[in-house]
Automatic annotation (TrEMBL), chain A:
CDD domains: EcfT. It holds the Pfam family CbiQ. It is a multi-pass membrane protein. It comes from Levilactobacillus acidifarinae DSM 19394 = JCM 15949. This is ABC-type cobalt transport system, permease component CbiQ related transporter. Its main location: membrane. Signal peptide: none annotated.
TrEMBL record, chain B:
Pfam families: ABC_cobalt. The chain crosses the membrane at residues 9-30, 50-69, 116-135, 147-168. Keywords: Membrane, Transmembrane, Transmembrane helix. This is Thiamin-related ABC transporter permease 1. It comes from the Bacteria.
């Protein structure tokens, strides 16, 4: 499915499920999500992790509401299943879409200005460097006997200075490679937006509406 | 009014990733805190205690970049990064990202993107707290809590957002303006 539409449908469903209270739909979405994940050959370890962690958070939330709230058991079931809807549906997107595909699709299909698409990609690809930089900043401080915590302003200060330098260098590098903001571009790889994608998109949304407003528990 | 250039977009994304990497360290902290509080039915408290940390990218990006939408974009990109790096909540993270981003953005809107000082950060902390709490009110069933406990959660959340998004952000931007790297309009 087209990445942009896939993302849109998942976000819309997640949003709608957050404000409605039909656990049958939640369960149906969980099952569908699981099927998609299995078809996409998700690793068993990932699936296990995606199940155990939300299980803890969902149980803890329900337990907390039981102790300190006045929610009905229906609402608690809704809330419990809702957590899994988020996780499984979300995973169907992340497990089947690469960041590059999504940015390309957003640029071509959703008409996102290219400066956002390429700016984001440029930065995203720095991820390993960014991680190393945080470690370096911490280690450098340790050599001087300073321990930088999550709440130390110096840690952020150094990191922001690095971010400023890198962003200028990257932008300059892009310019020197011929990138011009707002100029028309051709695409090395086109992401198709087929009628079939729209059918999946509309179909899924309609199905969810039917489920939500049919009077299911 | 300032416009987005590719340099700013890269900067806000790198900032968001940096924050993501730093907060990644707090992942276990959240789980441990949540697990410790869970038996007493206080698990959501872990959420409210640490929310300020997760929402910091917003005010920080808004303060450093000073273009309308910077706070929102900072938080949103933070959530995109988290989503692709294997954050558990997947695409649902994006919704939280937008909610938190809009929350902190409102603080800057209220000052018309003209003042960058304490007032802005306090307002931003206030709007972040209210907007994210409103979201959890429905999503996480906060509306079903007894009123007293709900207020405790709300106040905890505000303190957390204020300490991280307000005090810590101010300390960081103080360092930045002493290093003369903030834009000239910064001197408020």
């Amino acid at each position: 499915m087209n990445p942009t539409l896939k993302l849109a449908v998942i976000v819309l469903i997640a949003l709608e499920v957050s404000f409605t209270q039909v656990w049958a739909v939640n369960v149906a979405l969980i099952v569908i999500g699981l099927i998609i994940l299995l078809v996409a050959h998700i690793r068993l370890r990932t699936l296990l992790w995606l199940t155990v962690v939300p299980l803890f958070f969902a149980s803890a939330l329900v337990w907390s509401l039981m102790l300190r709230g006045n929610a009905t058991s229906h609402f608690l079931i809704v809330l419990f299943t809702r957590m899994f809807v988020y996780v499984y549906l979300g995973a169907t997107f992340t497990q089947t879409t690469a960041p590059l595909e999504l940015t390309r699709s957003l640029e071509q299909n959703a008409k996102l200005p290219s400066k956002f698409a390429y700016g984001f990609l440029a930065a995203f690809n720095l991820f390993p460097k960014i991680r190393a930089e945080v470690a370096t900043v911490r280690a450098a401080a340790l050599m001087r006997g300073q321990v930088l915590h999550v709440w130390s302003p110096q840690l952020y200060f150094k990191v922001i200075l690095t971010a400023m330098t890198w962003s200028e260098q990257l932008a300059d590098a892009m310019t020197s490679h011929g990138y011009v903001e707002g100029a028309p571009r051709t695409y090395a790889l086109t992401i198709p937006l087929k009628p079939r994608d729209w059918v999946y998109f509309t179909g899924s949304l309609v199905l969810v509406q039917v489920g939500l407003f049919l009077g299911l528990p | 009014m300032a416009r987005w250039h590719v340099k700013d977009i890269i900067l806000v994304t790198i900032l968001a990733i940096f924050m993501g990497v730093i907060f990644w360290v707090t992942g276990p902290l959240y789980t441990v805190l949540g697990a410790a509080l869970a038996p007493f039915g206080l698990q959501p408290m872990a959420n409210d205690l640490l929310l300020g940390l997760w929402c910091m990218a917003g005010p920080l990006a808004g303060f450093v970049i000073r273009i309308p939408g910077a706070a929102t974009l900072g938080e949103l990109l933070g959530s995109v990064v988290e989503m692709f790096l294997g954050g558990m909540w997947g695409a649902a993270t994006l919704i939280s990202g937008v909610v938190q981003g809009v929350g902190s953005e409102l603080g800057f809107v209220l000052t018309g993107y003209k003042r960058y000082n304490w007032l802005t950060l306090v307002l931003s902390a206030l709007t972040t707290t209210l907007v994210t709490f409103g979201w959890d009110f429905f999503r996480s069933g906060y509306n079903k809590y007894q009123f007293g406990f709900m207020m405790v959660l709300l106040i905890t959340r505000f303190i957390s957002v204020f300490v991280f998004g307000g005090v810590l952000t101010k300390l960081i931007t103080n360092l930045l303006s002493r290093a003369h790297v903030l834009s000239p309009r910064a001197n408020a």
